[in-house]
Every structure is written in C-alpha cells, then in structure tokens.
Amino acid sequence: MHINTIMVELLFNLVFISQMILLSWYYPRIIINRLTKVMDKYPPHEYPKLYTKPKDYYQKKITTFADLCTLAQIACLVIVLISWNLGNSPNEEMLVLICFAVQVLPIIILSIMAAKYFKKMKKVFQSSNREANLQPRRIFDFISAKLLGIAIILYVVYLLVYLYFNNFNIFLDGKVPLTLIGVTLIQLYFCMVFYWKMYGRKQNPYSVNEDRVREIKTVGKIAVYASIIMSLYLTVATIMDNFSYLDSLDPMMLSIYLQMITIFGIGAEIRMIKIEDINFDVYKNNIIKDTSVA
Amino acid sequence: MHITIDIDDPNPLFSQLVEQIKKAVDKDMIKPGAPLPSIRQLANDLEINNKTVAKAYKLLERDNIIQTRGYRGTFIHPDAKLNCTVDMSEWVMTKLTETISTLRQAGVTDSEIRIAFGNVMSNRQI
Known about the structure:
Chain A is mostly helical. In chain A, 69% of the residues lie in helices and 2% in strands. Chain A contains seven helices and one strand; from the N terminus they run H-H-H-E-H-H-H-H. Chain B has helices spanning 13-26, 39-46, 50-62, 80-84, 88-105, 110-122, and strands at residues 2-6, 35-36, 66-68, 74-76. The radius of gyration of chain B is 18 Å and the shape is elongated. Strand 1 of chain A pairs antiparallel with strand 1 of chain B.
C-alpha cells in the first residue's frame, strides 16, 4: 500500500497551518482578551488586593506578551522559509517540534510571570488569619475513576505495544529501557503535578475553597487528558515506526499530538475556569466571612 | 466546614486548632465518623508546620475526639461530643492541686515539692 505523497504533503501543510493558527493566534488572543477583561471588570480602586503593582504595569506585561506571540509567529515563518531553502527534504518532524517550542515560549514566559505575581501577592497578604476546610480532599472527588482507568489502561497498552515491537526484550539495546523509563517519568510527573495541586500550599492566598476545588479539578483533568493523549500518540507512533510506508505521516501525527496537548491543556483550563465563576469579592477591602467556627 | 487560626494570637497554634475542632464537634458542625483532612493537607492549607497539626491531632486523639484508622485516615470519634466536655487541662490542675495539698498537709515544704516535681518531670521513663 502506497500513500500518495502529494496528498500527505497537503494534509501535513494543513495540519501545520492549524498548529500555527492555534498556538500563535487563537489561544494567545483568548488569553489576552481574558486578562484585559479581568482588568476592565475588576479595576484597582474596587479590587485593590488583585493588584500588587499599578494597573499600567500589568497592561505593559499584556502588551509584551502580545508582542512575544507576534515575534514567535514571525520566527516560525522564518524557520519554515529557511527549512524550505535548505535542501530537498527538510526534516518536517524537527520543523514541527522547533516551531512548537518557539510558539509555546511566550506562554511559558506568561506562566513564569503569573507565578511571580502570586509570590508577590503572598508577600503583600497581610491577614494573620489562616483558613482551612475540614473536608479531606480525595483523588476521586476531582477525577472520574473511568477517566483515570482509561489513562492507566492506555499507558499499559503503550508499554505492551512498545515491548511487542521490541520482542519483549528490554535489554535489546539501550534505547528500550531509556524510552520506558522516560515515558514512565513523564506519567509520574503528571501525577506529581496533580498531587502538588491537591495537597500543596495554595498559590493565591485570597482564593476561596470553591475556586481552589475548581482549580484542582481542572489540573487533575488536564493531567489525565495529557497522559491519555501521550499514551495514544506514542502507541500510534510505535506502530507506525514499524511500517516504513507510514513514515511520511509522522510529522503530521506529531503536529496533531502537540495541538491536542494544547487544546486539552491551555484550552481545557480556559474552558473550565471561567472568569464569571471566580469569586473576585475576596480582592475587595474588608471582606467579613462568617463561615468559620471561630 | 471551615476553621480559622490566628498566627498572631498568643495562644499556641496547636491549641487553637484543638479548640476549633472541639468547637466544631460541640456545635454539631462536624458529625461523629466524619473524615478529617490529612496532616499534610491541613498544614499546607493553613500554611503552618506539619508538626503543629500532628501535635493537635495527637492531643485530640488522646482526648478521644478523633481516631486514626490506619491508611484510611483520621475520623471524628463516635463519642467525640461527649468527650469534648472533658477538659484535660482542668483535670490536670485538679489532680495537681489535690496532690500538693496532701503533701503540704504531710509537712513537705514548697521547695521540696518543686525539686521533687522537677526530678519526676525530668525522668521521662515515668
């Protein structure tokens, strides 16, 4: 069976353009609109605790983020043009990976800025009162058992498929144990992120329990989705690796995988944590809560 | 159900925790058999040391307000409400007052009592 090369190229180009649009235009635009909406709807004079620095500072940061996204877009176009001019057959898989790395860079920088913002917020937090819920948090309060089961089954399926194509010989060459350990470590990382979110110290000192529960649910779901998508992709990629006529589909599969990770990562967070649902009253001055025992 | 502690309060944090949980049980805000958060969860939520929460839980367990069921976690004791009324500090004060009064009646001086008390307290095997 031979796959039409032109058709594959066309499909790859379409998928790659969709990656460009999704990561350099669609999600950055949503993030910028979201941040601007928060600042417009909850101004510093009404919600002083939301701002650790003057409003202008955050507006500048949003502009910087927008500029970085535009720069990333231009950088990707330059990389694509260079790869076209380099040789007869540019490494499309590498191209997808490099562009993805460039595209997510502004989002990573934004995450670092967010972490710094919460750190500063914690420093400014003046209340000597500390509040906690006496309800224990359990894993299945946040993740459905079915979804977790699917993630575990798909991980085991991947391990079996990978070992099957390596004749169940773990020590066939150094690559097999390294791959298995690497994949397992990434899966453990997903577990750690969720565990840290569930039992770790809260980032935002003002957030109420309902908001925290929503955040934990979101992180839990994202971690499980990421695990499922990764296992699925690796299983398909392992199978495809053993059928050389499918090699030409690899770059397209990689791009689809990265886009799925984005949709079920950043996308899920935006969908699940809606601004309207967040309790912003905690950022006002002199909030009196009467839910505690004291 | 929320609890609040004040880190600037002169009362030790563990004793605030004990009091809050006892109050919650006494006011029926938390029922017997209800699960409690793990030490790590509560310590991280209140941003205090794990050892402080562990100390509070230990005291509550001693007073039969809570009970630990191995890996399943910590739960409110079935007789917690009844046991909330027992004030261990008050009981210790009563016992000590009685003992000191008996010793004084027997002619033992206060300094002798203090030295003996110090010796007994420093002997951890008792």
